Amino acid sequence: MGKTVAEKIFDAHVVDNPYQDVFVLSLDRVFCHEITTPIAINDLVARGKDRVFDASKIKAVIDHVTPAKDTKTAIQGKILRDWSRKHGIEFFDVGRNGVCHAIFPEKGFVRPGFTVIMGDSHTCTHGAFGAFAAGVGTTDLEVGILKGVCAFKKPETIKINVTGTLKEGVYAKDVILAIIAKLGVNGATNKVIEFAGPVVESFSMESRLTLSNMAVEAGATSGICYPDMTTVEYLWPFIKDDFSDKEAALEEYSKWLPDDDADYADVIELDVSELEPLVTYGYKPDQVKTVREMEGTPVDQVYIGSCTNGRIEDLRIAASILKGKKIADTVRGIVSPASPGAYALALKEGLLEVFMEAGFSVTNPTCGACLGMSNGVLAPGEVAASTTNRNFNGRMGKGGMVHLMSPATAAATAIEGKICNSPLFKG
Ligand SMILES: CC(C)[C@H](C(=O)O)[C@@H](O)C(=O)O
Ligand code: SF4
After folding, report:
1. Proximal ligand: closest to the CA of 104
2. Annotated binding-site members for [4Fe-4S] cluster
3. How far is the CA of 227 from the centre of ligand 2 (A)?
4. Residue 363: phi, psi to the nearest 5?
5. pLDDT digits (tens, 9 = 90+) for 107-166
6. What is the pLDDT of residues 350-388, one digit of tens each?
7. Closest-lying ligand to the alpha carbon of 64?
8. Does ligand 1 have an atom closer than 6 angstroms to the CB of 299?
9. Which of 141, 265, 276, 362 could lock 290 by a disulfide, CB 3.0 to 4.6 Å apart?
10. What percent of the chain has pLDDT over 90?
11. 245-259 as b/e, with b when 16 or more CB fall inside 10 Å?
């Protein structure tokens, strides 16, 4: 029987098989942010185990609330900062920081075939490189930091073949919303999703990161895209000394493709040729309608950012719609480029100017408004159009409502003050 991508990665990393389908895997990366890692650090210190398995494989960033907004968040940042310095862990502090799942890919920290953990549910994002990347709780994070291993049940895999041709103005965000609507919020629980097919092959790394990012919203442990020349091109600045040429890198990474006769829990065919821009309407990410159905819904705030859609590709699309336009005066527009790289490029390309002239506030790279912690918290009863990944009740502020959508739809919605299709989508 052939193997799925996750099965191949498990086989290559297994250090123990304590019982049945539980496997202890060696870790290639342990990522840390200031919300969940300080709890693990404090506990490790209290237990006299303030050690790390391999400082070069651990990376840390302050991203959720940055710069600190109060004493509590300042302390969280300080714990992570002091610990990183003490152990020689590469650390991204104010001025060089951004959303973990945007900055770590940008730095080339993830490679095909890697195992990655982090105390964050959207760690699945890094599966876009053909890695097994999973969010974990405090105990697993502590063990990972200390010993460089993590125990997982060998997951089954759902393969989704995305076929057809996307219409102009329809993006990876619409595809993943369609997938979540189809699977339901628990449809892939304890499973891995492989995103396959010509549409995914045609996607940039940014678009693949958007797909993998929301795998967890269907319950998936990880969302994996297959490594190909797009992956190699993206990683090339970081791997060029390891390979004679790009073809050699591609050949090496191809060992992380699934076998033709791999055994899947389910194989889903999704033809996206007729797909329209989508938007969520309720408090669960599988509550999805077409933008057309939701057209005219007034919004108070439009947020463009996050680990889902705060990358340079997203900023370019939104800016192309906002150029020369003004957002409605009933709307507060907030854009948070997700990483320093995206911010710097957006500045250089004049995109930040486009956003500002349209009436947006441009913030530093941070999670901020995405989870209602800073930089754009909603008041009760307010409605946001947002390029983020979660629309849970109160997610962006107690009593607030969030409609998830693509950056193109968000930009168009900001101009109208009401949910609407972008001019790029011709129907
Ligand atoms: C704060 C963190 C633990 C949380 C997560 O795990 O996802 C956050 O990033 C989120 O998106 O809600
Ligand atoms: S941007 Fe939002 S979803 Fe992503 S890690 Fe930050 S809070 Fe979580």
Report:
1. 2
2. 307, 367, 370
3. 24
4. -100, 170
5. 999 999 999 999 999 999 999 999 999 999 999 999 999 999 999 999 999 999 999 999
6. 999 999 999 999 999 999 999 999 999 999 999 999 999
7. 2
8. no
9. 276
10. 100
11. eeeebbebbeebbbe
Size (the chain), residues: 427
How high does pLDDT run on average in the chain? 98
**Rg (alpha carbons) of the chain, rounded to whole number:** 21
Kindly state the DSSP code that residue 155 receives in the 8-state scheme. P
Ligand 1 pocket, residue 384 CB under 6 Å: no
Q: What does the pLDDT read at residue 427?
A: 83
Residue type, 215: A
Q: How far apart are CA 8 and CA 224, in angstroms?
A: 12
In the three-class reduction of DSSP (H, G, I as helix; E, B as strand; rest coil), residue 234 is classed as helix
Per-residue pLDDT tens over the stretch 16-51: 999 999 999 999 999 999 999 999 999 999 999 999
Residue 91 amino acid letter:
F
For residue 367, report the distance from its CA to the centre of ligand 2, in Å: 5
Note whether 382 and 356 are within 8 A (CB): no
The rounded Å distance from CA 120 to ligand 1 centre is 5
Please give the DSSP secondary-structure letter assigned to residue 396.
Answer: T
The amino acid at 150: C
Q: 3-class secondary structure for 52-86?
A: CCCHHHEEEECCCCCCCCCHHHHHHHHHHHHHHHH
CA-closest residue to ligand 2 atom 6: 367
pLDDT digit string, tens, across residues 262-317 = 999 999 999 999 999 999 999 999 999 999 999 999 999 999 999 999 999 999 99
Q: Is 48 buried (19+), middle (13-18) or exposed (0-12) by CB count in 10 A?
A: exposed
Q: Please state, in angstroms and rounded to a whole number, the distance separating the CA atoms of residues 375 and 380.
A: 16
Could you tell me if the CB of 388 is within 6 A of ligand 2? yes
The Cβ of residue 291 has, within 10 Å, a number of other Cβ atoms equal to 25
Nearest CA to ligand 1 atom 9: 120
> Rounded to two decimals, what is the model's pTM?
0.98
350 CA → ligand 1 middle, Å: 31
